[in-house]
Amino acid sequence: MAAGEPARHPELRAILDTLRIWTRARRPVPRVVEMNTFRGPPQAVVLRIATAEQHRASRWPPSPVTNWLLTDPRGRRLGRDPATGTWYSEAPAITHSAAVESGFMLRETMEGHYGLQITASVPSVTYQLAVQAPDQSGKPATARHRGRTAEPGAIDRYDIVYSKGSTPVVRIAEVGDSWRFGILLSSRGDVAGELILTDPKGRVTGFDPVGKIEQIPQTSYVAAGSGQRSVRLDVRQPMEGSYLLEVTGTAPESYTLALRAWDRSGTVTVTPELRDVPTEPGVVHLYRLDYASTGRAPLKLAGRFEGDRLLAYANHPSTEARLRAGVTSFPLIIFYGAGIKPVTFNALLNGDNISGRFTPEPEGYQIVRIPLVPGPNTLLLSVEGTTASGRTVTDTHRLVFRVE
């Protein structure tokens, strides 16, 4: 057939036609048309928020796990308000939303300051922020910023400055949280175990026997040092209410607890330190931290007052404290309610009056060394005052310290 015998040309042509038919696709390949609003004119201001692949939504249609709200230099809003959930489209733009990316292209190019707020619908969302805008020659300039880890209920804020004549053309800066508080525990060596903080919703940040827990949004936890050890726990944008702080001892030594808080205006206040707090292996100290972002003192250190009680303790169980043989004193960490009448305070230890060891003050606290003898030691405390509910009561406590 290769010789091209004329008699066999029709047969050869039929074979070639058959091969041509079989090599064609049985169905037309669909033509893909990519519609990407972010590939618009280079003169546009474009913003993208991209999250990691593990945050890809499994629902349909696919949607990102981050939300944003932009305020342009004229004060016009675009996006979803994190406080109310309302969607605003005051700034003319084309918005974009996909599985792991969202953003917009503004229809108007405007120099000035832009405010951006980012929130998340699921915990621990890592994301990257990119802003593109034209320079003086009309060429697109891009600024990128690896954002924080977004959390539900918390707001990441950014200040975006766009100026064609500046270098760089676009700047992205984090806006610090004006309201927050920090806890610092310092000690010589490994005196106390890791901190555990529980917020008003029951969420926990800290270390337990299993490992590190970070359920409270916008928290950071850092432990460093061995000789001079420090543990720092910071809470950004904390919710209002009472927090429970748990400190577990690991050695017969002492630690210092220092607190610092910022209110909504960014004003910092320092709560007096609780210094040289003695502890023992396995001993648990419980503190209550009351945070109010608009209060005169945003953060208050207090005890866990039960019901209408006027006295509370950080380190004494409800029944009795069992101590090892040879112990001659107990460091009682006592808290006084806001409504106590100090002149009515009375303390009896095994029948002897030891009221002089105490300095009761409304909303005060102190560490009092209670002298002990072998066997059971009974401490009776009483004080009059007004409870949080407005009742006038005499609050009496019976604490037992048993030295084995």
Can you tell me about this structure?
- This protein is 4% helix and 50% strand.
- The protein is mainly β and 404 residues long.
- It folds into three domains: 45-174; 177-302, no CATH class; 310-404, Sandwich (Immunoglobulin-like), CATH 2.60.40.
- The protein has a six-stranded antiparallel sheet, with no helix packed on it. Strands 15-14-13-18-21-22 form a six-stranded antiparallel sheet, with no helix packed on it. A five-stranded antiparallel sheet has the order 5-6-1-8-9, with no helix packed on it.
- The N and C termini lie far apart (111 Å).
Characteristic key phrases:
6-stranded antiparallel beta sheet; 50% strand; 1 helix; 3 domains; single chain; Immunoglobulin-like; mainly beta; 4% helix; 404 residues
Structural class comes to: mainly beta
Number of domain units: 3
Enumerate how many helices there are, as a single number.
1
Q: What's the oligomerization state?
A: single chain
- The share of residues in extended strands comes to over 45%
Summary of the model, kept short:
This protein has 404 residues and is mostly beta strands. It has 1 helix and 30 strands.
Helix and strand arrangement:
Layout: H1 9-23, E1 45-51, E2 66-71, E3 77-80, E4 87-89, E5 93-97, E6 101-106, E7 112-120, E8 125-134, E9 140-150, E10 156-162, E11 170-174, E12 180-188, E13 196-198, E14 204-208, E15 211-214, E16 219-224, E17 228-236, E18 241-248, E19 254-262, E20 268-278, E21 284-291, E22 299-302, E23 311-313, E24 320-323, E25 329-336, E26 346-349, E27 352-353, E28 365-371, E29 375-386, E30 392-403
Parallel strand pairs: 24-30
Antiparallel strand pairs: 1-6, 1-8, 2-3, 2-7, 3-4, 5-6, 7-10, 8-9, 10-11, 12-17, 12-19, 13-14, 13-18, 14-15, 16-17, 18-21, 19-20, 21-22, 23-25, 25-28, 26-27, 26-29, 29-30
